[in-house]
Design goal:
- Helices cover 9% and strands 59% of the residues.
- It contains three helices and 20 strands.
- It has a 14-stranded mixed beta sheet, with helices on one face. Strands 15-16-17-18-19-20 form a six-stranded antiparallel beta sheet.
- Helix 1 (261-270) crosses helix 2 (279-293).
- The chain starts with a strand and ends with a strand.
Amino acid sequence: PLVDGSASGQDIRFEAPELGTRIRKGRFTTTFQNDRLSVTDLYFQDSRQGTLTGKGEFTLGELGRPLGSLEINAKKFQALDRRDLESVVSGKLRYQSRQEEAELIGEIKLNEAEVKEFITGEQSVIEIEVDEINRPDTVQAVKFKDNPLPVNLNVKVKAPREIYVRSRGLDVELSVDMDITGAIDAPLFNGKAEVVRGGYKLAGKTLQFTDGEIKFDGALPDAKLSLLAETQTTDITAKVEISGTVEKPSIELTSTPERPQDEILSVLLFGRSATELSSIEAAQLAGALAQFSGSGIGFDLFGGLRDAFGIGQLSIGFAEDGTAQISGGRYLARNVYLQVFSGAGQDQTGAIIEWEIRKNLSLRSRLQADNDQTFSLKYKKDF
């Protein structure tokens, strides 16, 4: 077809059920000249003021299929907004349309993301089979056509912080560096995510990870876990190790020298033997054993409080004397993190500010209510 003219749209609203993406205040302007199509203005706004803008040039190919490219610029756009997964992205992408296939290319930054449940399978709209009855012979049956143009991915994703995973006891913040390839309906992931802070929750207490990463080499559910939380006392070294895959994680308690699981958990949670616990601590230990065995149930109270206060992390634990201690934190700036903690004593109340000067260099300042102050400089390097 040869077309001369223009087409435009205003106040476009759109929702993608599989992604949870909600578009508001969308608009576009296109012009046609013979077999060429120019997109001069493309704008979409999500439900949180994030934006997608773009422009491009296409040639109308066989059967009117547009062949060409569209440059896309995302600015804190909420690409995923589901109950199990949320993400906000920024960066530049290019949609390239060819005769046999299309490709999405570019580099994006995850401004923030939260995984609330591990992915256990494909997310899709359920197709309902329909049997037509009493259909006249002159009326043809409705046929659904498959997507005629496969879309491949070649996208690099980076996030130095603020990628939260809160699922099955995990409560961690990650940094991510990965490549996404494959088809858009079956993406493949390659790269890794490293633990910035956080740990594994048992009986309301978070066991801080001393080491941890997630390696991606294929489908997302097949990503391999390698997370370790460790506590040492004068008599025992206790560890909780999370391995396996994202879809089927494996949690194992070990100790040196070898001890029963209730003893290992007691050391991990309270730093001493189960025979030395108070009645409150013993109840906490029983809850931890129930959670670890899979029989523990409950609701995410801290998740609701965390969202209500607008903070990144919130947890409650117990000090060495058995008293409760609550802590919470959030980012004050892109690379400045504030954590506030409060307990019964002045030495259990205070604040920590961590400033990431460079990717592998950070400065940490700790101030307690009893005026005890410490400064530390942390440097890390991968070998």
